[in-house]
Amino acid sequence: MGEMKKRMQAGDWFIADDPELGEEVRRCARLLAAFNALDVPAPAERRAILEQLFGAIGEDAIVRPPFRCDLGYNISFGARSFVNFGGIFLDTAPITVGDDVQIGPNVQLLAPHHELDSERRRAGWEKALPITIGDNVWLGGGVIVCPGVTIGANTVVGAGSVVTKDLPAGVLAVGNPARVIRALD
Fold first, then answer.
1. Which of the four, 11, 129, 140, 185, has the lowest number of CB atoms within 10 Å?
2. How confident is the model at residue 159, as a pLDDT?
């Protein structure tokens, strides 16, 4: 593993356009083009592409196209979990999705965090923080999950919410930023 990739995996600052990532990004783009193509009718063919793309994909997991990600191999996707149309997983850090998770349309899981200093941001510096989605979570349509967030098992996040901080297990959270409004049975 190259130095830049080690920094990226460790959550340290890195240059996003580093040539070291170039081939990995192109590999991901080729696999996504095949996955998202309209002429790939068979679910088994799409599953085979996801097995090449993701670091891990559980039994009976479903991802509906179109789907986008940065690298793919940083995504671990649990058994019987589901992503509806338009999922965007920016996986410059690990994104872990548990078992039996339901992800609505146009949900974004965004691991990259950009520099606040204008000069460093202009130079392309960013870091990435892992995202973890616990078992049996439901993310409503259009939810955005920010870098470094963990969502506990059995939690529901309402449509359009922006999750900027960790959410505990077994709650309903809504809004921008998402706030816990009640516990779930």
1. 185
2. 98
